[in-house]
Amino acid sequence: MEITALDALATAAAIRTGAASAVEVAQAHLARSVRLSDVVGAFARLTPERALARAAEVDAAVARGETAAPLLGVPCPIKDLNPVAGVGWEAGAAVLRGTVAEVDDDLVGWFAEAGTVLTGKTATPEFGLPCYTEPEGAPAARTPWDLSRSAGGSSGGAAAAVATGLAPIAHGSDGGGSIRIPASACGLVGLKASRGLVSGGSLRMPGPGLGTDGVLSRTVADTAVALDVLSGRGVGQTYHAPLPGTSFADAATREPGRLRVGVLTTPVIAEADVHPACVDAAWAVADALQRLGHQVTQAPVPFGYERWQAFGALWSVGAASIPLPEEAEPLLRPLTRWLREVGRATSGVAYAEAAAAVQRLTVDVALAWDDFDVVLTPTLAQPPSLVGGLRDDDDPAADFAAQTRFTPWTSVYNLSGRPAISLPLHTAEVDGRTLPIGVMLGGRFGEEETLLSASAQLEAAVGWRHPFLAADPA
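The structure assignment produced for this chain is given below.
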């Protein structure tokens, strides 16, 4: 099999056993990235010299018999929202063009300790704010399933890289769905962990707890191992989530037991038309769960559309809090400028009320859904959007509204702090193309083990394929 078609754990195993060297693996992924990165808009920049030097270090460690690292020699790029010392760091923003990071984000070290090889920085939209990845002056991130369609965002470059065989696994982050949205658009696994399970590290300013880091991967097992790498690393964290009894990797090998599954295909955060393919995907997975012996019933909508506005207030204040000089404002995208204007117009009292509203929503979600072990929804209301299909520079408020209609379930889990995972269990013919349609499983706070066990069981029962790992997208 082509080296670039191996998943992360298979890649590490090949290096561990001597079937391939870390340098060979890095070279294969870099060569494919040079050829295809701009086609799918995957990388903001590649770091070939750094990658090959690091791969040589891994090979030297293997020669010494040091092979315990779980992701030994695995190429793993970092999203360009996070700094890597000595590497360009522009966060998808023209105003930061030419910026080079002076220090590493903490997670850069955590991935390195796990044995990974950093091959570059993946593309992200401006400051990670929209759910599409169309950075200024750079190629849009596209799903390899149909190059006219977006890879999603804000971890769109990471998803495009993993889906196209440019990396077996890639770092991503999720503040409103930014791992799960591109996972759905590109046919990948994407987990948003419980609030506090993965630390934001020592460099980042604390916030309302909407966002967390994770990975885009091709298998549940790869995502589980990455969660073991990233979880429980923080010191003095504001939020805490329980660690697994053994490991998340172990959870992905266990049977989940008989679960009570709630199915919801009604949008939660906005009035939205849901494409029949997305509804069909959810019910097809519900049928699969029922055949596996789980109890499947309908789940209620946990709160009304209007109460989601608390997310908008927190999101816009977060945008306004990005430290930029006043002269930078005209260089920002219209959506970013609009969000910052809305954030600056939000009073301290309004922000406090929004934070309290989120706490009330968290209780209401628990009251509505805690009787279920798993809640199943479509990940998105529509198939992957056309590039430019959600963006509206002339009316950024309409742009933001279109994004909420496209993602009417994902941010529920950011608000409530609960875990959720998007799985590539379904495809559909849309406008003459086969497209991936993600489904999302959500769990109770701190119950990643249940999600991973159920996801691995579905992976084995339903299965999926990734057609663009050795072949080129067309």
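Interim note for the steering committee: Residues 124 and 133 are 6 Å apart (CA to CA). The radius of gyration is 21 Å.
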